Amino acid sequence: MPDFFIVGHPKCGTTALYEMLRRHPQIYMPDVKETRFFAPELHPGSHKSRLHPETIEDYLALFAGAEPQQRLGEASPSYLRSHSAAARIAELQPDARIIAILREPADFLRSLHMELLRDHVETEPDLAKAMALEPLRSGEEARRRSPGLVYSEYVHYVEQLRRYHAVFPPEQVLVLIYDDFRSDNESTVRSVLQFLGVDAAAAIEATDANPTVRVRSLRMYELVRSLYMGRGPVARTLKAGVKALTPRRLRRDALRTLRRRVLYGKPRPADEQLMLQLRRRFEGEIVELSEYLDRDLVRLWGYDSIG
């Protein structure tokens, strides 16, 4: 079983931390990020490929390449939101080290919304309208069709941390703040290495993985995605022709260039009125979190001046 788990949240530096830790010679993390093994209720239907193992045997097989002296870890950002992942992890690995990363809610949800648009999970390009749809997305059937679209459920930070503190002693749970990770990447990673009991003096290469981008056109994005996936008779015919005439590496590089230059763009400036509304909505959560962690996040995240 893994020795440690990066449990979330998404868009809080989990991918960058995963990439930086897996380069450490005393750490082994599988190529598959987000195995989702301990939170199947949040990903219905995802356990149909080797990327998302269903059995414990398949899950442990992801770590078969580790050396005996290495610390094993995995990163699944949905584990923090899951109501059952903490207990499931503790049952199989009570000595596990847990790493959670928290981000100011309004900024976090804005970034998450853009990622869900990019991943074709979200279809409403306006964040305010997407959040207004939460009552329609809260039903069991809606959750099964489009999991992860009830945005406010992500911002129950204290409740989420309590689930881990209920089954793990405090010295096994490390809570990071996204602002610290962004402002002093190296120092934060070294604190994680110390927490994991590996060489904290090893060379660290800063990584800016999974940056937030804006989807320029959902229609164009769907067209390119359909061609890439080979959906429909026309798309399958075109894809087969391209595969026959073009090397795989060239296809991959061309797709990456297309995404960067045509499909994606820099995020537009935030809607400050919406950001203010979200901060007012989650102010109570941040006050409670500040008390829970004994750190003044109210001032750090500007909640002392929202009026």
N to C succession of SSEs? EHEHEHEHHHHHEHHEHHHEHHH
What percent strand? 5-15%
Q: How many individual domains?
A: 2
CATH homologous group name of the largest domain:
P-loop containing nucleotide triphosphate hydrolases
Q: How many H/I helical runs?
A: 16
Inertia-based shape: globular
Major sheet: size, sense and barrel closure?
Answer: 5 strands, parallel
Classify the helix fraction into a percent range: 40-55%
CA-CA gap between termini = 48 Å
- Structure classification: alpha/beta
| CATH level 1 name of the largest domain | Alpha Beta
CATH architecture descriptor text of the largest domain: 3-Layer(aba) Sandwich
Secondary structure layout:
Blueprint: E1 4-8, H1 14-21, E2 27-28, H2 56-61, E3 71-75, H3 85-92, E4 97-102, H4 105-118, H5 127-132, H6 134-137, H7 140-145, H8 157-165, E5 173-177, H9 178-183, H10 185-196, E6 214-215, H11 218-229, H12 233-245, H13 248-263, E7 264-265, H14 272-281, H15 283-293, H16 297-300
Parallel strand pairs: 1-3, 1-4, 2-3, 4-5
Antiparallel strand pairs: 6-7
